[in-house]
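Researcher: I need the complex structure. Ligand is F0G. Inputs:
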Amino acid sequence: MADIKVPMEPFRIKVVEPIRPVARREREVLLGQSGFNIFGIPAEKVTIDLLTDSGTSAMSDDQWAGIMSGDESYAGSRNFFHLEDSVRSIFGFRHVIPTHQGRAAERILFGSAVKKGDSVPNNIHFDTTRANVEILGARAENLVAAEAYDPDSSHPFKGDMDVEKLKKFIDRRGVERIPLVMMTVTNNSGGGQPVSLKNIKQVSEVCAHHGIPFFFDACRFAENAFFIKKREKAYAKKSVLEIAQEMFSYADGATMSGKKDALVNIGGFITLDDDALAEKIKNLLIISEGFPTYGGLAGRDLEAMARGLKEGLDEDYLEHRTAQVAYLGALLDQAGVPVFKPFGGHAVYILADRFLPHIPRAQYPGWALTVALYREFGIRAVEIGGVMFGQKTGKGKAEVYPELEMVRLAIPRRVYTASHLRFVADSLIELHKNRDKVRGLRIVRESPFLRHFTAQLEEI
Ligand code: F0G
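Model: Output:
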């Protein structure tokens, strides 16, 4: 067995939060009460929480200091101007419009630009962007390159969009039906895989040729830029900041969930150049999120995001972050646990259909794995598979499943140490040895949108 290097944390720990043990019996009861839905488990009853990397970051001493300098004025808070400077220095767009988180940015951007009957292409839409498109009566189109769906290909940029597919799609649908093209970096629903600068340029050219605005879903732009530095030859000597600036230079704007690469617990924004669209967005923002200099956030939150955006580009931090993901991935891979490769920027994705080959797709193997992982070890992970993305669009409204059936082990930023990850790996390896005992599930109650958050299931 090859030696797997343990990634050393590039920080000291100043504040700690206890993790309390929870008995297996108690976890069993909680699963029953939650309808076998790990979103319904109280967080204090979770030993290691890998549900998401969103909003779960540990803030730095500098960010906490920034919290104390919050200016809570209704209009024109100084922290807004700090955020504006910070966003402009990275993204380069004129308008910076805060929102309480990413999906609010999506709702407001799409609400201002998308009409019923339109289509919005993306490499792969995240569930909230898809839902925010569909709720307007428009279609969310995934145009990622084919490698994205091959978990064994070692392609370094599996988040890339298929440019030929995009061209054909525009010809078929018509420019007037496509109000914007999005690009998700990194591609969360496809294994947290990066998009190359080469692909970004190509997509940008196609959009410019047709006069279609090109927007980033930029949640994990810093991780994406770091992968470009490591994997795209021409960029090895550029700083991650320079790479990020170049990425955004090919676009017309971005939505951002600050809860990822801006290292905050809440916050997001829309940034763009188009004055007319920005005005529409601000008008819509005022109705629901708030005045354009706070957008649903406190002044202190704006300050934490302004500072976090810069820390998220720190290369020592990014080196460790990606090394943590690779460490967990390598421990699992070496022990024969089926994982998506290459390892992504924020999470390790388990191939649940290979992990549990005895459970058919109709009984949601990914979901079954999340239930087993919590029951046996108190670890919380999220299914990115049939429950999250299944759609009743087949013959006789049969359910059609997404290409990949995965469980995501998302790693919160600066929260867990290598020994926590070791515990997760050991647990999964043990579960893999006893995989025959894991049972499939059926859905007994669900909502029409984003059903995974609230669905109730039972074991078969
Ligand atoms: N886009 C992507 C690619 C995301 O991953 C998320 C959130 C959003 C948009 C929405 O941002 O949560 O601030 O409203 N992803 C989280 C996750 C929830 O667990 O991957 P939000």
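Model: Summary of the prediction. The chain is about 40% helix and 10% strand.
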